Amino acid sequence: MSTPPAIELDSVTVGYDRRTVCRDVSLRIADGSFTVFIGPNGCGKSTLLRTIARVLRPSEGRIAVLGRDTRAYSRRQYARTVGLLPQGIEAPAGMTVTDLVLRGRHPHRSALSRWTSQDDQAVTDALTVTGTAEFGDRVLAELSGGQRQRAWLAMLLAQDTPVLLLDEPTTYLDIAHQYEVLDLLAELHASGRTVVAVLHDLNQAARFATDLVVLRDGRITETGHPSTVLTPDLVADVFGLRCRIVPDPVTGTPAVFPEPTRPHPSLGPR
Amino acid sequence: MTTAPPLGPTLGPTLGPGRRTLRRHTRRAVLTCLVVLMLSAGLAVGALASGRYATPLADLWPVLTGGGDPGLRFVLLELRLPRIGTALTVGAALGGAGALFQSASRNPLGSPDIVGFTVGAATGALVVLLVLDGTSLTPAVGTALGGAAVAATALLLGGTGQRLILVGIGLSALLTSVNAYLLTRAEVTDAQNAAVWLVGSLNGSGAHLPLLLGALTVLLPLAVVVARGLRLIETGDEKALSLGVPVRRQRLTATALAVALTAVGVAGAGPVGFVALAAPHLARRVTRVAAPLVTTSAVLGAALLLAADQLAQRLIPGQQLPVGAVTGVLGGGYLALVLAWTWRGRSR
């Protein structure tokens, strides 16, 4: 084995207060992969992502990132290695895009150090890559949902981490902006980063992921390449949805088409 | 450790948007502080020169340099100057506390008034004045201790953030009835005396100025340091944690410092309302920077309280209003306007 996996979970159990959400989860996420977590609501995919981000602490098991136990990292070291875009995030009133993005440099700065040209470069690059430079001086609240999400992505990029975690990064965006965000993630993946995202849309997951992780009731039921993982049986089993799966006419990746359901008998003809 | 490859085109050693933004923020903050400090200085000179015995500006200088008429010396140095100093100190303490509270709770309405500090301070004053007869402890200590005790209880029960504010509202409701009960049991003169403490007043203040000023010079720089970490908490707990910020510890430290600063303010002038709420709001509006602006808020709070106290002394000729009444009316009106304006903008 040459390179260690980007992320390795070893029998991880985690939850909130006394409610266990994920039990005994083991998983390897390959370095340089674009891994997508899918599963029905409440299956524990966000919980798992937040645990990898060290926002939640597992009650049992251990997690290693780039071959090193997460507990061996200092806060600052970890923040330089793993970045997280949380779900449904809101910025304080009056904050501009650049102001937000430069805060992403926090783990690279010490309490007394001045703003370096390296910090400046990272912020400039993050703004450029996400296409947010042109409205860098505008207040976040004035922007469209898609622009705002790109600003948050820019903040994440300014953090300059080899591993990126994204919790439903396309929620609340219209379809064009969803693909804009996903294309950007694909670009970041192509540039060598490990991208791990929670997505709801199975077709998007199948199209962008190199690896799918299917969760149900806090356990992993399947992992692998979308074309082998995504089958009508799995969708019926995990999501309770009868569907047909056909190769996407554009990309050839599996695409999910739900079967029409018969109307309920109580809804008789009018 | 693998490092991510560079992204996008790299630019030359020009001034990046990050540094430009930081410079602009610093410039605005420094400029705002300078302007407000100059305004405060002007106000202070005006306050020193005016009063029941108007003093020509020309007579001020000899007194300040150690000479002048003894009677005038007494009025200026023993009466007016300590009062001005207390107004500035208390205002700065409350302004700084407000900035910390708002950032730590991620709530623009987070302020010592709202976590029950003010009502607790009132209870402290009432207990000292009415139950302990005000002999062993001065009401100033009572108010500071009462407020701090309630805020600490709110912290223990409510933790941080939104829940802290809700618990504060609950505790305030509880103590308001305790205060009302204490007042019904009191002698009329005692009750009247206590009522002034409940509003917050600078009348006859100044005795504790060195102590207050000492506390402020220790606490305010600490607050500035703590506020640096709070900047990241403003983007949300999860985001801050992922950036390596010890969120719980930072927030506890900030709230504890805010409580201490409020105690300084309340010990000096009683529970003066709305300065802690309005100063950070104004600071944000003027500097157009989204960050806990401790220094700017403190400077603005000092100017606000001094101005309010001057207004309180001459709004009704021949009568000195408690400064808390003025800040209450001005601050309450400001809050109502801001909220109405903000919400109208939001529903559009």
UniProtKB/TrEMBL annotation, chain A:
GO cellular component labels: plasma membrane
SUPFAM superfamilies: P-loop containing nucleoside triphosphate hydrolases
Key words, A-Z: ATP-binding, Cell membrane, Ion transport, Iron, Iron transport, Membrane, Nucleotide-binding, Transport
Principal location class: membrane
UniProt xrefs under SMART domains: AAA
Domain ABC transporter: 7-242
A Pfam family recorded for this sequence: ABC_tran
InterPro entries: AAA+_ATPase, ABC_transporter-like_ATP-bd, ABC_transporter-like_CS, P-loop_NTPase, Siderophore_ABC-ATPase
Subcellular location: Cell membrane
Membrane topology: Peripheral membrane protein
GO biological process, one term: iron ion transport
GO MF entries: ATP binding; ATP hydrolysis activity
PANTHER family in the cross-refs: IRON(3+)-HYDROXAMATE IMPORT ATP-BINDING PROTEIN FHUC
Record protein name field: ABC transporter domain-containing protein
Originating species: Micromonospora endophytica
UniProtKB/TrEMBL annotation, chain B:
GO biological process: siderophore-iron import into cell
GO cellular component: plasma membrane
Region annotation Disordered: where it falls in the sequence: 1-22
Pfam families reported for this sequence: FecCD (PF01032)
Transmembrane region(s): 29-49, 84-102, 114-132, 138-157, 164-183, 211-233, 254-277, 289-308, 320-343
Cell compartment(s), UniProt: Cell membrane
Low complexity: bias regions: 1-19
Topological category with respect to the lipid bilayer: Multi-pass membrane protein
Keywords: Cell membrane, Membrane, Transmembrane, Transmembrane helix, Transport
Tree of life domain: Bacteria
GO molecular function terms listed in the Swiss-Prot or TrEMBL record: transmembrane transporter activity
Family: Belongs to the binding-protein-dependent transport system permease family. FecCD subfamily.
Protein name as catalogued: Iron complex transport system permease protein
Source species of the chain: Micromonospora endophytica
